[in-house]
């Protein structure tokens, strides 16, 4: 379940404006009359540049912006005046708080989210077009990986007319995440959802995959067919259960189901593009642990107040946020974590 306040991280870009539209659409039905606290916190971060980073850019033509002695870009990404102008895009009674910070964008966004207890961080996908993050900015990738709460990554795939919510794609993995996905859908329906596609993606299953080549070097065709039929029946049962629960609470919705066999990441992106999906919803189980956790005692002294940060992003989620052509909502249960120490720009 999403809980207020929400955090909007903006740099004044087009995708950040799209994220703002999405955030207001989702937050508006959750705002109670006469709220005591802001429903949305808008944060703009003026990036700093360390001396080490500057030393790597020996060619002055490669520097995007000149830096001052303090390491702060002389031309701000977004000024406090521009940040205040964003208030005109929210209705007058809507409770919004505006903040402006200097530092490393990803660090400041994560620290702000922890300090206000944000239930959702919304930001644009960025404009980086090289390397692995060619479709996702480096800041958005860091936030998606380390945020302790849900993350909405917006993309300007098409002009938004009216409510951006319309056709949602829910990826159903197993029973626990399915329940969380349906609970989240109950919150999103009042924001303008009219169609929901429930997608289940299963890996190919055969006797050799399950038992190994030594147990049965030449598995029979009948055994493979039986395993695939059982897998298909299990997936369809999950989809039909979820569909029945959704229609029971929201009979006005159009609910579709789809069952595919293959790699989840590419299949989700392909289905989303074919159906012109407005938003992909990915629900995390919330129990993912870092592979480095057993090494914390070896790599850090016992007196250290900050543990190693766990990566809270699976391979399927990582693929989708990098390759999806529409916005993606990573829904995960919030876990309180210690603030990340700011890095000096000197």
Notable traits:
single chain, 346 residues, alpha/beta, Rossmann fold, ten-stranded mixed beta sheet, 10 strands, 34% helix, disordered C terminus
Give me the secondary-structure topology.
Elements (H helix, E strand, L loop, with lengths): L5 E5 L3 H14 L12 E8 L3 H6 L23 H6 L10 E8 L1 H12 L3 E5 L13 H9 L3 E5 L12 E5 L3 H14 L6 E8 L4 H5 L9 H29 L4 E8 L2 H11 L4 E5 L12 H4 L15 H9 L4 E4 L15
Parallel strand pairs: 1-2, 1-4, 2-3, 4-5, 6-7, 6-9, 7-8, 9-10
Antiparallel strand pairs: 5-10
Helix pairs in contact: 4-5, 6-8, 9-11
Description:
- Strands 3-2-1-4-5-10-9-6-7-8 form a ten-stranded mixed beta sheet, sandwiched between helices.
- It has one domain (6-331): Rossmann fold (3-Layer(aba) Sandwich).
- Helix 6 packs parallel to helix 8 and helix 9 packs parallel to helix 11.
- It starts with 5 loop residues before the first strand and ends in a 15-residue tail after the last strand.
- The chain has 346 residues and is α/β, with parallel strands linked by helices.
- The chain is built from eleven helices and ten strands.
């Amino acid at each position: 379940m999403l809980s207020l306040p929400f955090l909007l991280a903006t740099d004044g870009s087009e995708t950040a404006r799209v994220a703002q539209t999405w955030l207001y659409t989702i937050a508006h039905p959750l705002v109670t009359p006469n709220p005591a606290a802001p429903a949305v916190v808008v944060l703009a971060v003026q990036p700093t540049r360390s001396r080490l980073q500057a030393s790597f850019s020996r060619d002055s033509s490669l520097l995007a912006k000149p830096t001052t002695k303090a390491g702060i870009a002389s031309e701000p990404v977004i000024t406090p005046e521009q940040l205040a102008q964003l208030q005109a895009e929210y209705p007058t009674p809507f409770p919004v708080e505006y903040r402006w910070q200097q530092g490393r964008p990803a660090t400041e966004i994560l620290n702000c989210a922890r300090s206000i207890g944000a239930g959702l961080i919304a930001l644009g996908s960025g404009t980086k077009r090289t390397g692995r993050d060619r479709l996702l900015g480096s800041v958005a990738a860091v936030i998606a990986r380390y945020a302790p709460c849900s993350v909405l990554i917006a993309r300007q795939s098409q002009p938004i007319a009216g409510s951006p919510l319309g056709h949602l794609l829910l990826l159903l993995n197993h029973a626990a995440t399915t329940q969380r996905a349906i609970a989240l859908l109950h919150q999103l329906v009042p924001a303008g959802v009219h169609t929901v596609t429930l997608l289940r993606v299963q890996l190919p299953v055969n006797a050799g995959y399950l038992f190994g080549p030594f147990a049965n070097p030449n598995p029979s065709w009948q055994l493979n067919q039986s395993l695939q039929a059982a897998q298909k029946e299990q997936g369809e049962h999950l989809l039909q259960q979820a569909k029945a629960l959704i229609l029971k609470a929201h009979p006005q919705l159009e609910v579709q189901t789809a069952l595919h066999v293959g790699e989840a990441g590419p299949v989700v992106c392909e289905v989303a593009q074919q159906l012109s999906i407005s938003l992909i919803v990915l629900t995390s189980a919330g129990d993912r642990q870092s592979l480095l956790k057993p090494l914390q005692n070896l790599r850090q002294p016992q007196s250290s107040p900050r543990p190693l940060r766990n990566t809270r992003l699976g391979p399927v989620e990582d693929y989708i946020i990098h390759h999806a052509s529409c916005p993606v909502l990573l829904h995960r249960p919030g876990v309180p974590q210690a603030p990340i120490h700011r890095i000096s720009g000197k």
